Amino acid sequence: MAAQGAGPPELFEQTAGALDVVIAPVSGGGLLSGTAIATYGRDRRVAVWGAEPAAAADAQASLAQGRRITDWPNATICDGLRATLGELPFEILSRHCAGIATATEDQIIAAMRLMFERLKIVVEPSAAVPLAGILAHPELFKAKRIGFIVSGGNLDLERLPWQ
C-alpha cells in the first residue's frame, strides 16, 4: 500500500495542488488505499474515489453494506481487477473513500479507445476504468478538477471484442 501511494504526490505536483478529486481503480484495494492515504495526508479536502467494472463491483457492494463481500462474480475484461477487496484496504477505504464509480464493459472499452486516440497511450482495460467511471457518472464529477491514476499497459489486442 505504501509504495502504491506514489501517484497522488505526482498528481499534486503536476497540478499545483489544484485537485478536487483523485480516482483510482480498485480490486484488492492496495492501490486505492495507498492513494487514499497519500491524498488524505496531503489535503483532506480532496475526495478520493475508486472505480471498478460493474461486472466485478465487490468493493462498491462491500462499502455500501459495511462488510467485505468476497463471493461477487468477476466476469470482466479487466483481468487486473478480478481480486476481491482485502481486509486492511476495506478498513482504510471505509474511512477515506468517497465512493466507487462503476462502468460497464462497453464503457470501459470506450474509455480505452478514447485514451488511445486522444492521449496516445496504450492502457490495459483495468487502467481505463477510472476514466470510464468518470464518463459513466458525470453528475458525480461535474465541475470538478480530477486526477486519475492510470495503472498499467498490459494488453492483448487479439482478445478485445471491438474487431
Folded structure, characterized:
This protein is α/β, with parallel strands linked by helices and 163 residues long. The protein has a single domain, classed as Rossmann fold (3-Layer(aba) Sandwich), CATH 3.40.50.1100. Helices cover 43% and strands 12% of the residues. It has 7 helices and 4 strands; from the N terminus they run H-E-H-E-H-H-E-H-H-H-E. It has helices spanning 7-14, 30-42, 58-65, 87-96, 105-119, 125-136, 138-141, and strands at residues 21-25, 47-53, 99-103, 146-148. A 4-stranded parallel beta sheet has the order 3-2-1-4, sandwiched between helices. Helix 2 (30-42) links the parallel strand 1 (21-25) and strand 2 (47-53). Helix 2 runs parallel beside helix 4 and helix 5 (105-119) crosses helix 6. The protein is globular. The model has no long low-confidence stretch (mean pLDDT 91).
Outline the low-pLDDT stretches.
none
Question: Counting H and I runs of at least 4 residues, what is the number of helices?
Answer: 7
- Main sheet strand line-up: 3-2-1-4
- Outline: globular
Strand percent estimate? 5-15%
User: Strand pairing plus helix content: what structural class?
Assistant: alpha/beta
| Portion of residues within helices | 40-55%
